UniProtKB/TrEMBL annotation:
Keyword ATP-binding tagged: yes
Superkingdom in the source lineage: Bacteria
Keywords: ATP-binding, Nucleotide-binding, Transport
Protein name: ABC transporter ATP-binding protein
Record InterPro entries: AAA+_ATPase, ABC_transporter-like_ATP-bd, ABC_transporter-like_CS, ABC_transpr_LolD-like, MacB-like_ATP-bd, P-loop_NTPase
GO molecular function term, any single one: ATP binding
Lineage of source species: Bacteria, Bacillati, Actinomycetota, Actinomycetes, Micrococcales
UniProt key word ATP-binding: yes
Ranges annotated as spanning the membrane: none
Record organism: Paeniglutamicibacter terrestris
PANTHER family associated with the record: ABC TRANSPORTER RELATED, IMPORT ATP-BINDING PROTEIN
Domain ABC transporter: residue ranges: 10-232
One matching Pfam family: ABC_tran
Amino acid sequence: MNTPNTNMPLQLIDVTLEYPDGDGTIKALDAVNLSVGAGKMLSLIGPSGSGKSSLLAAAATLIRPTSGLVIIDGTTASDLNDAQLTALRREKIGIIFQQPNLLASLTAVEQLMISDHLRGKSLKPAKKHAMELLDIVGLADSAKKRPHQLSGGQRQRVNIARALMGEPKVLLVDEPTAALDNARSESIVRLLAQVTKEFSVATVMVTHDTEFISFTDSVAAMRDGVLGISELVGS
Ligand SMILES: Nc1ncnc2c1ncn2[C@@H]1O[C@H](COP(=O)(O)OP(=O)(O)OP(=O)(O)O)[C@@H](O)[C@H]1O
């Protein structure tokens, strides 16, 4: 397949990414092909330095690949200028990092409301939307708590809810359980699998926790920039 397919919110076609390395270059991604369907969640595993973060950064359109295409919900990222890419990211992509970078002075509901506010929504509907999402991630009772009053797992739940505020088509998740104990890690991966279905997003989760990959629809393994298993899911 080498044409945009809107049933596949995330498509990477022959994506190669090279970084300068001394006199030469290093191939962080080597002709990667990947498609993830709406409502499907893929685990991305692989040793350190194999290119997982590079793949997420390319899929997030935070970095332009050396060659190949990144297609988000039918839009080819390389056709866009930087301002258009920023708009595409805001409208279509939710990004969840390892450490929830929440603002210390804001309550959980405010962390989410900011997101809608920046998109031009007024406060009342933003609050309603934020409360709905906090309810979905199991934090309706903690809406008024600030980050220091929440556990690590709860902070990650706020992070997930915040990423969903923009109603993304693609959810990119980098090591969401790295700072959590086993039980909390499992509940976070289960929650990600749940919201993937509920919101019909295409989710890619980089993880070292192979224990929890059975909660996801498929698994791809990276090694030296090459995607070992390139599965088409959700077709
Ligand atoms: N900005 C950069 N400049 C040069 N080389 C880079 C850069 N970022 C990553 N690399 C190299 O690209 C390759 C892939 O790195 P990447 O961080 O994507 O791997 P990873 O699988 O995410 O690793 P980890 O699990 O340790 O985060 C590695 O050889 C790395 O050293």
